[in-house]
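ugh ok fine here u go
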Amino acid sequence: MPFLTEELWQRLPRRSGDLTKSIMIAPYPRFDPNLNNPTAASQYEFLLRCSKGVKSLMAEYSIKRNAKSKGVATMDILASDSVPPIGCAVFVVTSFTTILLDIKGHIAVDTALQKAKNKLENSRKVAGRLKEIIARWDENDQRISKDAKAAELAKLEEAEAEVGNYKRSIEQFENLKLGGAA
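structure:
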């Protein structure tokens, strides 16, 4: 990859005063604490996970991108207590964020229903395993760090959110199968 790296180096704009002729003789970059922004980094990671969710659902349900858009024409943000539209596939990003992709009219309802049932079963298994692990914890056990416990509890919370979302998806697909009756 050295040739590609050098080619990129030669074509990218340089900082003012940088007269280095080749990346091969450039000083190794140093960490600048002024550029460190953990909040921006976590927000960026969150957006990447959302993007991954949309792409994953589109691929899973074979929804093709059309020439006018790059896959998503509109996006609505729903309140956590609102009823999602009927006929949506679910991708859980975090315990407080879920992607709902309207697949009504794009897929066979029976196929979507079976996929949602399979995902529900997998999420139940994950949640069950996590509950078993957590149930074995002894409050005085020092072998498990607080961070590890917090991570497992967060995984359980997300798995339980997935279970709830897949249950809702199944209800939606069954309503769609019945002709949209709410």
